[in-house]
Give the backbone structure.
Amino acid sequence: EKDIKISDMDNMLIVEPRKLCLKLVNYLLNSNTTSDEFILLDKNQDFLNRKQIVVIDNILNFSLNSKNIITKLYALIESEVYTNPDIFKEYQTKVISLNNLLYNCLNEFNFDLTFDREINLSSFLKIINLKIEERDNKLIDKLLNIIEFYSQIPREYCLCFFRVLDFFEDHEILEIIKYLKYKKPKQNRHQMA
């Protein structure tokens, strides 16, 4: 019953004993697991809810365009638009303009047509197939993009990368640590590697 000590960088945890690491990952991946072996707390000593924990157990196959990520991205963009009155007003004006254009075009048909005049932003983003560009060929860029994405989300997340450091050279690990230190004070997030 020992606490796992975290280095001077409190947004990164490296679990070395393989057996303990496997137990932790199993605990995090299995949402129906009930155990008091692991209790994860944030810096304020508040319990981390399982919904706040993101486990990335295969960085090679991780996609920033998964349904879960895209849903978070759309919510982030909606929040940005709806909380900025100028942008929201302009969006509404453009939707009205588009509706009028379409309505005028539809009047040319000899049968009645109807359409939904309200285009919510989430639906619009789906229509235009908005996605995160994933062209990075380097694995380190992919990892930094994952960290960057979650640092933009207003809700706190604990990122748990399983065996990710095995893929990087020492100088890249130092770059990752430097990036985590940079993101921590700015966004007050929790990351573990």
Remarks:
- The longest strand covers residues 53-56.
